Amino acid sequence: MYSHCSSSRATTRTPMSASLRAPCDSTPRMPRHRVGSTTAVRSPSQRRRCGLRVTVCEAGSTPATTGGSCCSGGGESGVAAAAAGFSMSATPEGGRITFTGSTAGPAPPEGSLSPDATVAVAPTASEAPSSATPSSTATGSEKQLPAKSSVKASVKPPAKSEPAPTDSSNLIVGAAAVGGLALVAAAAFVWRKKGAEWQAAMRERQLRQQSKAMLNEVISQIRSYDFVDLQGKNLGDEAVSYCAEALAFNTIAVGIDLGNNAIGPQGMQYICNALESNETLTELVLSGNMIGDEGAASLAEFLKTKGTQISVLNVSGNAIADEGMKALAEMLKTNTTLVKLDLSNNVIDYEGFVALSEALQVNESITDLYISGNYAGSMGAAALGRALPENKGLQELYFSGNDVGNEGITVLCEGLAKHQGKISHLDLGNNSIGGEGCEALGKYLEKDKHLVWANFYMNDMGDLGAGYVAEALKKNKKLDHLDLGGNNIMASGASKLAEMAQENETLETLELSYNPMGPEGAQALADALKFKGHVKTLKMGWCKLGVKGGSAIADSMRYNTSVQTLDLRGNGLGDEGIYDFAATLKVVNETLERLDLGYNDIKDQGAFALAQALKSNSDGMALATLSMNNNYITKFGEVALKEAVDVASEISGKEIELEI
C-alpha cells in the first residue's frame, strides 16, 4: 500500500492493514492498495502509530534511505498508479520492503508510475534501534535494519482495474451494530405498543361485558319493580335509552331514582318519551345530572301535558339556568299535582327567580320548595318575598346559600309575615345576614304561629342579631328547633339566648356550635339550663369553652333533667375538664343519653377517670353513647374505657356504645 506527494517525500507506513498518509497537505487523498487485499483507509490515529517510512520510485531508480526521496521520478505518479489498481507481493530484503508491480489493461497516463516501479518501506528513526544509522548511498549499501522489518515484495496488478473502495470496515461494523440495536429497540417498542393496545382492548371488552350484564340487570329491575333505584349507575344517555324502553313497559312503578347518571338533554328526552304511557309514577328523581336548560324544557313540556300524576320532582344539581327555570315556571302555572320541587344547586339567577315568583302566585299545589345554592341575591329574594303574600300552599321553604344579605332578607321576611299559608320549615342559612337584617327576621318570628324548624346557620348575626332572635322567641310558642351555628355570637349574645331558653317552653334543639362565646357564655347557658328549660339537644362544639366553661356545663348536667344529647367537641377541655364530667357521671342522671367529647385533648388520665365513673354508676346512668374520637388516648386508656363499658353494659342490662 502506498501514496506519493508532489515533494516526493516518503509517507508514513501504518501497521499491517493501516493506510498511508501523504505528508503534504496540498496533495488530495486517494484510495490506496494493501498487500494481498483490496485497499483500505485508516484513521489518522492509526496512521500515527506507524513506524515505517515508504519510498516510491520510478522504474530504473533506487530508493534512497537517507532523505526518503527517489533517485528519479516522483510527482503525481504514485497517486495515478494507485488509482489504476494493481496487486502486490512482498519479499524481505534487508531493512526495507520493496513493492514491484505492473498494471494490466490500458497504458497508464503520462507522468504516472511505471509498471515495474518499486516501493521501499523502511523503519522510521523512532522504530529503528538507536545504533542503526542510514547509509549515504542509494544502491543498498546502507546499514541493515533488524530482520523483523526486512521484507521485499513484487507487485502484479490485477487483470482488470477496479475502483478502490474506501476502507470503512470499522464504520460499517459500528453502523451495523447501531442499526441492529435500533431494530431491536424498534421491535421492542412496537411489541410493547401492541401489547398495550391488546391489554386496552381486553379491558374495554371486559368493561363492555360488565356494562352489558349490569344493563340487563337494570332493565330487568325496571320492568318488574314498583320503585326503580338506579342512583349512581353512571348510565349516560346511551344506556338511558335502553332503560327508557324497559320503563315504557312498567305499569306498576311509583318511583324512579336516576340521580347521578350523567344524563344530558337527549337522555332526558328518552325518559319523557318512555313515561308518556306510565300512569302510576308519582316520584321522579333526576338529581346530579346534566340536563341543563334544554332538558328542563323537555321535562316541563312532559309535566304540562302527560306526567300530571307526578307529585315529587328532584332536579337539583342539573346546571339549570334562567331559561330552564322559565320553562319549569310556565309548567307550574298549570300543574296541580306537583307537591315537592327540588331546584337546589343549579345556576338560577335573578330572571329565573322572577319567573318562579310569578308562578308561585298562581300555583297552589307546591308545599315543599328547595331552591338553596343558587344565585338569587337580594333582588331575587325580594322578588320571592313580594310573591309570598299571594301564595297559599307553601309550607316548607329551603332558601340557603343565595347571598340574600340584609336588604333581601328584609323584603323576604315581610312577605313571609304576610303569607296566607302555614310555613313550618324555614332554611335561611349561609345568606350573609347581619345583625341589622335580623331585626326584620325577629319581627317575623315573633308573629309567626306555625314555624317549628328554623335554620339560620353560617350567617353573621353577631350579638346584635342573637338579641333580636332571642327576644322574638320569648314570645314564640311554636318553634322547637333553632340552628344559630357559625354566627359569631359571643358571651353577650349567648347570655340573651340563655334567658330565652329559660322562658321558652317549646324549644328542644339548640345548635350553637362555632360561636366563640367562651367560658362566660358557657356559664350563662349552664345557669339557665341548670334547673329550667326544655332543651333536649344542646350542641356547643368549637365554642372556646376551655376548662372553666366545660366545668360549668358539667356541673349543670348534675341537676338538669331535660338534656339528652350534649355535644362539646373541640373545646380544649383536657384531662382537667374531664375530671368534672367524671364526677357528674358518678351522680345518678336518668336523662343524658349521648355525650360527645371528641377533639378535646384528653389523655389517658382523663380516660381512666371516665372509666372509673362508668363502673361506679352503672345502674344509675342513662348513657347509651360515649364518643371520645380524636383525642390523645393511648392503648392503655382505650383498654380501660372498653372494660368499663363492658362492665356497665353487663350490670345495667343495656348496650353502651363507645366511639374512640
How would the blueprint of this fold be written?
Elements: E1 11-13, H1 44-48, E2 52-57, H2 77-84, E3 92-93, E4 96-101, E5 117-123, H3 169-224, E6 227-229, H4 236-247, E7 255-257, H5 265-274, E8 283-285, H6 292-305, E9 312-314, H7 322-332, E10 340-342, H8 350-360, E11 368-370, H9 377-387, E12 396-398, H10 405-417, E13 425-427, H11 437-447, E14 453-455, H12 462-473, E15 481-483, H13 491-503, E16 509-511, H14 518-531, E17 537-539, H15 546-557, E18 565-567, H16 574-586, E19 594-596, H17 604-616, E20 625-627, H18 635-652, E21 657-659
Parallel strand pairs: 6-7, 7-8, 8-9, 9-10, 10-11, 11-12, 12-13, 13-14, 14-15, 15-16, 16-17, 17-18, 18-19, 19-20, 20-21
Antiparallel strand pairs: 1-2, 2-5, 3-4, 4-5
Helix pairs in contact: 3-4, 4-5, 5-6, 6-7, 7-8, 8-9, 9-10, 10-11, 11-12, 12-13, 13-14, 14-15, 15-16, 16-17, 17-18
Question: What features would you describe in this structure?
Answer:
This protein has 660 residues and is an alpha/beta fold. The protein is 39% helix and 11% strand. The chain contains 18 helices and 21 strands. The chain has helices spanning 44-48, 77-84, 169-224, 236-247, 265-274, 292-305, 322-332, 350-360, 377-387, 405-417, 437-447, 462-473, 491-503, 518-531, 546-557, 574-586, 604-616, 635-652; strands at residues 11-13, 52-57, 92-93, 96-101, 117-123, 227-229, 255-257, 283-285, 312-314, 340-342, 368-370, 396-398, 425-427, 453-455, 481-483, 509-511, 537-539, 565-567, 594-596, 625-627, 657-659. The protein has a 16-stranded parallel beta sheet with strand order 6-7-8-9-10-11-12-13-14-15-16-17-18-19-20-21, with helices on one face. A five-stranded antiparallel beta sheet has the order 1-2-5-4-3, with no helix packed on it. Helix 10 runs parallel beside helix 11 (437-447). The longest helix has 56 residues, at 169-224. The radius of gyration is 52 Å and the shape is globular. The chain starts with 10 loop residues before the first strand and ends with a strand. The model is unreliable at 1-91 and 102-156 (pLDDT under 50).
